[in-house]
Amino acid sequence: MATQIAATDEVLAYVEDISPPEDPVLAELRTLTAELPGGSAMQVPPSEGRLLSLLVALTGAATVLEIGTYTGYSTLCMARALPPGGRVITCDINKKMTAIAQSFWDRAGVADRIDLRLGDAQETMAGLSAGTVDLVFIDADKQSYPAYYTRSVELVRPGGLIVIDNTLFFGRVLDPAADDPGTAGIRTVNELVQSDTRVETCVLPFADGLTLARKKPA
Ligand SMILES: C[S@@+](CC[C@H](N)C(=O)[O-])C[C@H]1O[C@@H](n2cnc3c(N)ncnc32)[C@H](O)[C@@H]1O
Predict the structure, then answer these.
(1) Which CATH number fits the domain that encloses residue 170?
(2) Total structural domains in the chain?
(3) pTM of this prediction?
(4) For residue 7, what pLDDT band results from cuts at 50, 70 and 90?
(5) How many angstroms is it from 92 CA to the middle of ligand 1?
């Protein structure tokens, strides 16, 4: 499309060249994560980490809920942007990866702003009260995205923001042969968001696709 630049490797490298460098803690976390069995493909890229920080700062979010911690990169980006007294509640089922996350949050001096809940995200979400969250970032198992989105709309306050990662799912959403549960989950959540009159939305063709859904003020 003429109005959309193709995100080639060269363009993405240029974007990093003209952006502030990762600080040493984030850079070390990225390097360490790349050497793990899951690698850094599951981690948000630096540009998305910067956007998440900005979104938290721009919205003034004091209570952030993250679905999918992994080694804690996106958590750290959002925690740093919180106002005084703010917190990120982040959930994951992986004890080993979140232990790495915790060691980096300690080093970055933000551990006291992060509330890690180990266990299934849907159970964690069920235990939170409706309307108490300012911003949700969804970045876990794709087949559960419809359930995560549905509960997020209840949890977020009017005017709050839901940020959904991987909504283009490496182009698999467009591939008729892709019928795995993850791709099906992404297609379903995209339809849910599009038809949901409670939210104002924008799909950013950025990173792996990032959808912003703002719950309309009451
Ligand atoms: C894409 S990674 C998260 C990446 C992280 N946001 C970052 O940028 O570094 C997805 C995470 O979701 C977690 N996950 C998968 N199924 C889950 C579930 N049912 N409940 C909670 N977390 C889950 C995985 O263990 C994995 O660490």
Answers:
(1) 3.40.50.150
(2) 1
(3) 0.97
(4) confident
(5) 5
